[in-house]
Design a protein that fits this description.
By secondary structure, the chain is an alpha/beta fold. Helices cover 44% and strands 20% of the residues. Strands 1, 2, 3, 4, 5 and 6 form a 6-stranded mixed β-sheet that branches. A hairpin with a 2-residue loop joins strand 3 and strand 4. The relative contact order is 0.11.
Length: 333
């Protein structure tokens, strides 16, 4: 089967490290980060290329992986090619080394193999550059790596990621099969409930809007959730159930729990606010003040894989339980 994946997605899933900090909440997606990138790229020479698009196709096991991304800079220096990855930060640059966030170098190494393979190069110089978004001061780390070493890293990374894809694929098949086979969980359908299910199913299937007024007690929550699940056809479709009150959310959770007890296998998450999620007295996301922020990304992947394999319904209580077990921030988790 074919899968199109971004280089950044693989690097960050497999190799993420470090703390939850101001950098995480404000980094490259913010306006300051974009401007810092552009500041450095405007300094490139005429022969340098910015935002270099690269793509590779690799067949491993039962997968054809199409990997793609954009290299911040392909630079030419005295006949040598340098691949540059730029990361913006608010930290003092003296606090940063090449292992500051391992996913950054991993992303660059994946690009390095893809470029060496495309250009038939025996080795490549990789440059990981950090720029402070306030002062525009920079620090960079250069690494000269052989194509063979990059190849080993590239294929090892893809095989590790395929292990994760296999887990997702297994759960996806379970979801499709059990949504098709699951029956309404009650022996008796209440007055008005069947009409509610028919209307909800038709509306969702045809991407319309249904405005319904119905009395308390006909089972609106189960009717809409059950028919909503039955309307899902595409692999990556999601069903959102929104309610204005906590009591309504609890009823929705209980409805899903009942369906799961009857054999439904879906991944359901009950969202809640940061204030209600936080395990500390104050919601300060500072690794110096919160143990759940310190080293958060070092423990995230293990927690994700365990949780995904072990649970179907993720209530706020379950999320907190997992967060305590793995010592990670429940809200960001």
């Amino acid at each position: 089967m074919k899968r199109s994946i971004g280089v950044r997605e693989i690097a960050y899933f497999l190799y993420a490290s470090g703390d939850l900090s101001s950098d995480f909440f404000s980094n490259a997606s913010g306006r300051d980060g974009i401007m810092a990138h552009q500041y450095l790229q405007h300094k490139y020479k005429a022969e340098d290329i910015k935002e270099y698009f690269i793509k590779s196709n690799t067949i491993i096991d039962d997968y054809e992986i199409e990997l793609s991304g954009r290299i911040d800079g392909v630079l030419k220096d005295s006949g040598e090619t340098i691949l540059e990855e730029i990361k913006s930060t608010r930290l003092n640059l003296t606090d940063i080394d090449i292992d500051y966030h391992r996913e950054h170098l991993a992303q660059l190494k994946l690009y390095g193999y893809m470029y060496c393979d495309a250009e038939d190069l025996p080795s490549i110089r990789l440059r990981l550059t950090y720029i402070n978004t306030r002062s525009y001061e920079t620090i960079y780390f250069d690494v000269l790596i052989s194509r063979d070493e990059l190849s080993e890293f590239y294929y090892d990374s893809l095989r590790k990621y395929i292990d994760w894809l296999n887990i997702i694929e297994e759960k996806r098949k379970d979801r499709i099969d059990t949504i098709k086979s699951i029956s309404f969980p009650y022996d008796k359908i209440r007055d008005g409930q069947r009409d509610m299910m028919k209307a909800s199913y038709y509306t969702l299937s045809h991407k319309n809007i249904l405005y319904a007024i119905a009395p308390t007690g006909i089972g609106k929550t189960m009717a809409t959730i059950f028919s909503g699940l039955k309307s899902m056809k595409a692999d990556r479709e999601k069903l959102f159930y929104l309610t204005g009150k906590s009591t309504g959310k609890r009823v929705a959770e209980e409805s899903l729990r009942l369906l799961i007890d009857k054999g439904l296998k879906v991944k359901a998450l009950s969202l809640t606010s940061k204030a209600k999620s936080c395990l500390n007295d104050t919601t300060v996301c500072d690794p110096l003040k919160c143990k759940y922020a310190k080293g958060y990304f070092d423990r995230l992947q293990e927690a994700l894989v365990y949780a995904y394999n072990s649970y179907n319904l993720f209530t706020p209580d379950i999320i907190k339980e997992l967060a305590k077990e793995y010592n990670i921030c429940p809200f960001e988790f």
